[in-house]
Specification:
about 35% helix, DHBP synthase, 8-stranded mixed β-sheet, Nucleotidyltransferase, domain 5
Length: about 600
Amino acid sequence: MPTRLVNNTCRPTVNILGISAFYHDSAACLVRDAEITAAAQEERFTRIKHDPSFPVHAARSCLRQAGVLPGELDAVVFYDKPLLKFTRLLETYASHAPAGIRSFVKAMPLWLKRKLHIPGIIRKELGYEGRVLFARHHASHAASAFFPSPFEKAAILTVDGVGEWSTSTMGLGEGNRVRLLKELRFPHSLGLLYSAFTFYTGFRVNRGEYKVMGLAPYGEPRYADRILDRLLDLREDGSFRLDMRYFDYCTGLTMTNARFHRLFGGPPRKPETPVTRREMDLARSVQTVTEEILLRMARHLHETTGCKNLVLAGGVALNCVGNGRILREGPFQDLWIQPAAGDAGGALGAALLVRHHYFGKPRTAGPGDRQQGSLLGPAFTDAEIERFLARRGVPAPHMLEPERLVEEVARLLAQGKVVGWFQGRMEFGPRALGARSILADPRDRCMQATLNLKIKHRESFRPFAPAVLAERVSDWFELDRASPYMLLVAPVHAKRRLPPAPGDASRRGFEVLDAVRSEIPAVTHVDNSARIQTVHDATNPLFAALVRAFERRTGCPVLINTSFNVRGEPIVCTPEDAYDCFLRAGLDILVLGSHLLHREEPAPPD
């Protein structure tokens, strides 16, 4: 992307469409003037989880929400530089030849037909004839972390698998500029190290890393020293070199090889087979090593920049356990993490980078961030919902006023009902934040198992997140600040924990799930931690009103909040998606806007 500034600072409106595509989690974002107007992942429209295809549906949705025609766009920007990435692939294949020839032959047609022809694809798919720009992958991540943040100046840390050549960067954001100061280059990658263990423990790369993080507290870090001694040479500044003799990802065949398997005691776990103590310990070990690397990076970045604030992006920034440790043990006073930290957020970062660097537009920081609660996707009116229900032959219930709606849903939640909650604009990023959520009572000791096995149809060990009123977070968790995007892990407050019951100390493996650790057992992980979402009136007043109504009934200002989907499917986007998931998942209640639907006949009110 050109570094010169265009003299457009006086132009009243600048419309910029950001695009990320062709790896995983394709997305589009529209930035209009100083506002992030709309953003969405392509998977929500195609219903293909982690869809990597060109985000034509997401882009059209963004334009439609903003009332912008393709001809009114000042620029479309792609989130990385395909030619530079292609060069890296060619050099990597050449240096490992003849290994990887099958992967090379498979990859080349896609590159030659699509990935090297981004401008033509944009013009064809969107009917757009204007300028197409490109940003470096980690510059897009850095921009997505800094520009929406509440800070005038901040250190920037981006960590993922790989962009063009960079796998992590350290930088500085100030005013309307970001600068990348230092990088770690492929093949030495923290994201790919974590993905190697994701593969080895039997989960899917780029899809199962959060499962490894959730599995880690069940194990012990007995392989951590082996990882540090044999797999990587770690330095004090957080940089490292991997011993590539243990990895196969440079050839594109698998993440790990026979030497890796011998080092850790056998072949990888086959997907869908039982998880054993070895996988638990491997997960804990790589999580421990990851946290140590992130802490060293953060300390070095603080020494380099002298900044009191830190912003993060890249797929590894979704490791909320590591984020929590940076906050508690690192040198920064505060941090802000991009909610769509992975490749989807690259579309947002690319658009913001062009706005500030290419068009030279100013930036105003604070108070609060510019992410708007990350509620940036499409919304549906009650009239649209009624028309959908009529098409499906579902009798439309009477619409409830907001005050009556939240009181009735709070009553049902307190009775143990599981509620599908569909309201307002869809979330941008991987987390449901109170717009496309499944909600339940966290005080119910059986609710975690019910949701995992009967509703979500997923692994029993997976924890659920608490949504807590922002003003009450410190009463229930050992956290003294906002966490609106579910990207910080902190302990449940000591005063909310319960003493161990007889026999708890002897539980091993997944048996520890049966122990009741706190007043909110369904959101308390086995290490007494929780992945916290603080709920704010300013960004989601109806959801905040619901949590407040639940507190009035129960004394508990916390709800279970998990994404409105079942295993293998993206979060719901439309009323039709929500209704179909309601039927398949066996939810008790569905709230579509002002409409409340019962699976069975409603119980009389209290």
